[in-house]
Amino acid sequence: MAADTGDSRPLQVPKRLLDAVGDDPAEPVRSWLDSLPQLAARRLGAWELTPERVVTPGGRGGLVVLVRQADGTPAALKFPVPGPGRGDEAAALAHWNGWGAARLLRASSEDGALLIERLQSAVSLRSLPEAKALLEAAGTVRRLWVPPPADSFGTVEERTGAAAEMLPTLASGAWAADVRPLADEALELRSGLTAQPPERLLLHGDFRQGKVLAGERTPWLAVGPRPVVGERAYDLARLVLDRCEDLAAGPGPAAAARRRIAKLADSLDVDRDRLRGWSLFRAVEAGLRHGAAGDRRRAELLLEFAGWL
């Protein structure tokens, strides 16, 4: 699938994106995917952008094209997959205004397109040794934790509430029989964690090493938020799960996982128990989702990680 941009370099929609949303039953998503080449061509023309290349393999949340603006300045043009909260990424980037995250240059309410400061898409924190990556990640995410704009984003309670409702169903499959006690624990932990949230801050929502890219005006900047309002421990929990395959391959993975929690919690002044609780919940929820989607290898790794906690 390619976009007619008026030159000899059609824009190919990456296979990863096609695989991620190609079978989505929602009509808006199917229509968006079918019309994406035309949407891209129109937006390139309307904003006077010259395409260089599509970022591949890219992400599952949208199409990203590296472009040049009319004055030659590099940028990245993104078309997020339509769905609930489609405009939240633009709102969060605008609120941060380049503080800890890529700067939003333009946004279209018509087709959801975002023109974003160009970062080095091939260089993320995952390219660093783990200890250095976690240090830089902690320094980046703390900049994002700011008071949110009024009434503009959903809350952690709402987001995890939807996930919690699905856990019993996801854990009911025969393959998941052994992890039902973990699912029960995750639900109990989530209930306690959401009863009295200690703070209300704007969170990235999907913060991990692959979402932090090398920049020019500052060494590392976050991209691709799924913004939500809540406590820092929820945001940090996704980082705890990052590169869990490295822990699994090393000696004493359970102790290493607990040390990671302690180190991150202490470096960012986050309560260790709350970080452990959210890490376990997010590991179980993600593991069961991967298992239900047929990715047993990833599911088993995440659920094993949850067991270590």
TrEMBL record:
SUPFAM superfamilies: Protein kinase-like (PK-like)
One of the record's GO molecular function terms: kinase activity
Pfam families linked: APH_6_hur
Swiss-Prot/TrEMBL keywords: Kinase, Transferase
Domain of life: Bacteria
GO biological process terms held by the UniProt record: secondary metabolic process
Protein's recorded name: Kinase
Originating species: Streptomyces botrytidirepellens
